[in-house]
């Protein structure tokens, strides 16, 4: 099956064509990061307007790069939540128009399910159960994947998401926006053991996360350094912050894998592009003889290929969406919410 997927949940306008759930024929990603940079974050209304301006061109490019036309498609898929409602609506409306106009089945995809399925683009033959660490701008979830479309969240953040923590730390350090990639790059020149920052493990046996204390500790450290008038080595501070986040993420992921008897670990979401997290998770999982799948960075940050991949498995089980599909900004992993009706799997 050849699937065209659209992704407009935040500030990436993306369209991809994927064949058989694994062959990425095209994956066009138009990032609006330059537009939002001057505001220091994504402005929802601006994002929606930009999606509207860009989407038709991005779809045309995706089809062109795949060497296909609308007539070659077997289904059209779209992210319908979670995300910014106005941004989601642009993709959802376009996908419904294409599905209606061409009489194609419509597949509604959960954005986080999309992030997780980036791993099936890397290896479609993964055996369940799997454990996926989803670390993104809005989420930090440890997800037990029991089968296609079957998810159990065993841990989640109680305050900031990992990506949010990176972005706030970067702002505190005056590095700019978006913060994750900047901290990643600067950390390479820093010493991760230079500054002792707290790691929040919460109660014994908990797989939940908390990053707000770390954020405060960083701010307090900077204030104290400012009062004392000493030199602040930003690279050391960035590396120490990054290591504190990564240590907790990796410790809890491995603990959850042991607890649930899972041998294959997946990594997903924008923060999965982080070099330190990728290296540490791979190194420490190997020590325990666990396999780790880590998608290439371009499939970790928002993109439509991951949405097409998730859609393929929905397509196979006939999980289609009605043409009344609406954007659901607070959609949860493992639920389908189609206009008025609520279906939990
Ligand atoms: P969600 O997926 O939760 O809806 P989102 O789609 O906005 O949120 P993503 O695009 O998946 O989030 O990820 C963006 C986040 O990833 C940002 O917070 C960004 O700073 C972070 N990020 C991207 N690259 C890196 C990196 N190399 N190191 C650390 N963080 C990164
Ligand atoms: Mg983004
Ligand atoms: Fe995302």
UniProtKB/TrEMBL annotation:
Keyword terms, alphabetized: Acyltransferase, Cytoplasm, Hydrolase, Iron, Metal-binding, Protease, Transferase, tRNA processing
Residue numbers binding Fe cation: 111, 115, 302
Entry's Gene Ontology molecular function annotations: iron ion binding; peptidase activity; tRNA N(6)-L-threonylcarbamoyladenine synthase activity
Gene Ontology CC entries for this record: cytoplasm
Species in which this protein is naturally found: Pelotomaculum thermopropionicum (strain DSM 13744 / JCM 10971 / SI)
Pfam families tied to this protein: TsaD
Protein name: tRNA N6-adenosine threonylcarbamoyltransferase
Record's function text: Required for the formation of a threonylcarbamoyl group on adenosine at position 37 (t(6)A37) in tRNAs that read codons beginning with adenine. Is involved in the transfer of the threonylcarbamoyl moiety of threonylcarbamoyl-AMP (TC-AMP) to the N6 group of A37, together with TsaE and TsaB. TsaD likely plays a direct catalytic role in this reaction.
PANTHER family, alphabetized: TRNA N6-ADENOSINE THREONYLCARBAMOYLTRANSFERASE, TRNA N6-ADENOSINE THREONYLCARBAMOYLTRANSFERASE, MITOCHONDRIAL
Sequence ranges assigned to domain Gcp-like in this UniProt record: 23-308
Protein's UniProt keywords contain Nucleotide-binding: no
NCBIfam families the record matches: gcp_kae1, T6A_TsaD_YgjD
Similarity comment: Belongs to the KAE1 / TsaD family.
Cofactor binding remark: Binds 1 Fe(2+) ion per subunit.
Gene giving rise to this polypeptide: QRI7
GO biological process, any: proteolysis
Enzyme Commission number(s) from the entry: 2.3.1.234
Enzymatic class: transferase
Regions that span the bilayer: none
InterPro entries named among the record's database cross-references: ATPase_NBD, Gcp-like_dom, KAE1/TsaD, Peptidase_M22_CS, TsaD
Compartment list: Cytoplasm
Catalytic reaction annotation: L-threonylcarbamoyladenylate + adenosine(37) in tRNA = N(6)-L-threonylcarbamoyladenosine(37) in tRNA + AMP + H(+)
Lineage: Bacteria, Bacillati, Bacillota, Clostridia, Eubacteriales
Binding positions (substrate): 134-138, 167, 180, 184, 274
Needed co-factor(s): Fe(2+)
């Amino acid at each position: 099956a050849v699937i065209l997927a659209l992704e407009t949940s935040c500030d990436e306008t993306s369209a991809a064509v994927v064949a058989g759930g694994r062959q990425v024929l095209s994956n066009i990603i138009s990032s609006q990061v330059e537009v939002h940079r001057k505001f220091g974050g994504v402005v929802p209304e601006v994002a929606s307007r930009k999606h509207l301006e860009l989407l038709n061109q991005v779809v045309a490019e995706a089809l062109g790069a795949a060497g296909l036309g609308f007539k070659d498609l077997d289904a059209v898929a779209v992210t319908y939540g979670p995300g910014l409602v106005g941004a989601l609506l642009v993709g959802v409306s376009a996908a419904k128009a294409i599905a209606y106009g061409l009489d194609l089945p419509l597949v509604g995809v959960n954005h986080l399910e999309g992030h997780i399925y980036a791993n099936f683009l890397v290896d479609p033959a993964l055996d369940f159960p799997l454990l996926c660490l989803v670390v993104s701008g809005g989420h930090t979830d440890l997800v037990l994947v029991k089968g296609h479309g079957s998810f159990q969240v065993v841990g989640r953040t109680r305050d900031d998401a990992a990506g949010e923590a990176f972005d706030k730390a970067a702002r505190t350090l005056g590095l700019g926006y978006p913060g994750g990639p900047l901290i990643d790059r600067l950390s390479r020149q820093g010493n991760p053991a230079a500054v002792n920052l707290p790691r929040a493990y919460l109660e014994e046996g908990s797989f939940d996360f908390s990053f707000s204390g770390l954020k405060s500790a960083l701010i307090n450290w900077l204030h104290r350094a400012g009062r004392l008038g000493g030199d602040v080595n930003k690279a050391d501070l960035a590396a120490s912050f990054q290591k504190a986040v990564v240590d907790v993420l990796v410790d809890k992921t491995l603990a959850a894998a042991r607890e649930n008897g899972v041998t294959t670990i997946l990594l997903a979401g924008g923060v999965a592009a982080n070099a330190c997290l990728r290296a540490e998770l791979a190194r420490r999982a190997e020590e325990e003889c666990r396999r780790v799948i880590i998608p290439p960075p371009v499939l970790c940050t928002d993109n439509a290929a991951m949405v097409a991949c998730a859609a393929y498995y929905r397509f196979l089980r006939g999980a289609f969406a009605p043409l009344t599909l609406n954007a659901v900004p607070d959609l949860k992993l493992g639920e389908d919410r189609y206009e008025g009706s609520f279906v939990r799997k």
